[in-house]
Amino acid sequence: xxxxxxxxxxxxxxxxxxxxxxxxxxxxxxxxxxxxxxxxxxxxxxxxxxxxxxxxxxxxxxxxxxxxxxxxxxxxxxxxxxxxxxxxxxxxxxxxxxxxxxxxxxxxxxxxxxxxxxxxxxxxxxxxxxxxxxxxxxxxxxxxxxxxxxxxxxxxxxxxxxxxxxxxxxxxxxxxxxxxxxxxxxxxxxxxxxxxxxxxxxxxxxxxxxxxxxxxxxxxxxxxxxxxxxxxxxxxxxxxxxxxxxxxxxxxxxxxxxxxxxxxxxxxxxxxxxxxxxxxxxxxxxxxxxxxxxxxxxxxxxxxxxxxxxxxxxxxxxxxxxxxxxxxxxxxxxxxxxxxxxxxxxxxxxxxxxxxxxxxxxxxxxxxxxxxxxxxxxxxxxxxxxxxxxxxxxxxxxxxxxxxxxxxxxxxxxxxxxxxxxxxxxxxxxxxxxxxxxxxxxxxxxxxxxxxxxxxxxxxxxxxxxxx
Length: 468
Fold this sequence. Notes:
Layout: H1 2-48, E1 49-62, E2 66-69, E3 74-78, E4 95-99, E5 104-114, E6 117-132, E7 135-155, E8 161-172, E9 196-206, E10 210-217, H2 233-238, E11 242-251, E12 254-265, E13 270-275, E14 278-283, E15 288-301, E16 304-314, E17 324-330, E18 338-342, E19 344-355, E20 358-371, E21 384-386, E22 388-389, E23 392-393, E24 397-411, E25 414-428, E26 443-445, E27 448-449, E28 452-467
Antiparallel strand pairs: 1-4, 1-5, 1-28, 2-3, 5-6, 6-7, 7-8, 8-9, 9-10, 10-11, 11-12, 12-15, 13-14, 15-16, 16-19, 17-18, 17-21, 19-20, 20-24, 22-23, 24-25, 25-28, 26-27
């Protein structure tokens, strides 16, 4: 009996001692699976996801009141004289601010493939939204968000192959993608186009040297001016997106790119007509169509970079260029639609950059207001729609130029930049019927003489940036 009791106690003790070991043995596969899943997740993140961004601060001084946005960091053009009864220019007021709202964070998604189709994506944001002038609380806003499909090594004639990509989402406008190497937030605007918009863009690399590009572009943040202000409704009710076509040639360190944008919008959906002595609101068939061609040149060799671009912008205010459109006729047809003509501006810039750790940059730009090809009915605000910035119209600007020397120090992931930007604009007192500015001392009427005058803003800007 004692022997049986001892054996039972020994077996129970053995089971109790072996139970934890058995439990651990049972758990071992689960722990191994968890570790494997965790390793797979890490590998997936490492292989396909890349988080990037920077913390950027601008310390900015301006000698004059100017059109500017994004907390006054996105510089445009200086305002004309605004004299009071004592002869004081109220716009000759210096200002200073420093902000970090342009700090940015983004995510690149890379390396996915289905069959022969490569799939990638990008989403990018910064913090400029929510400000009124230099006051307010910065909030996140969408900067870029797109997916891209790609196909490589497609057969062509001979031994040549082609690569095709299809981008869908919000990205840089094809005319704005190539920019001078300044540290300014505006990257050369209004001498250089500046626009990010929802789009569908196809790039086809044909062999080693040529790329053709086609885009359908819709307006969102950067919109066209018109009778109802700046709004995307003109494109919405015009049905047609903006259409872009371009060709790029690469050879050695040279790159040449040319393209043209077609904009066709509906400035009004309805109009008032008098029928049998009554005012009747009717649907109208208004439409304004314009073409904006450009040419871009680039050369790179070791530490040297030379870039140049010229744009003939027509009604290109949505590209942050100077221009608009106006009424040239009122149809006698039953619907009473208006006929329009776009104003044109020639915008050209050149930039030269040299260096890597210490980089020197010099940019120069010039704008000329070319007016429209036909005369407008009138040049008052009710019939002549120009781009405005900070509620200011630039229809009286004849020409402008900008000179920007910059020094940049790159120390690992830290960048320090110092920039002087001088922007001068010439304004006129009177307009010709086609929207051009009358020459200085031109006879207006009844002994009245037109005048022109220059104003200039001097901007000194210090930038600090830490990349991650």
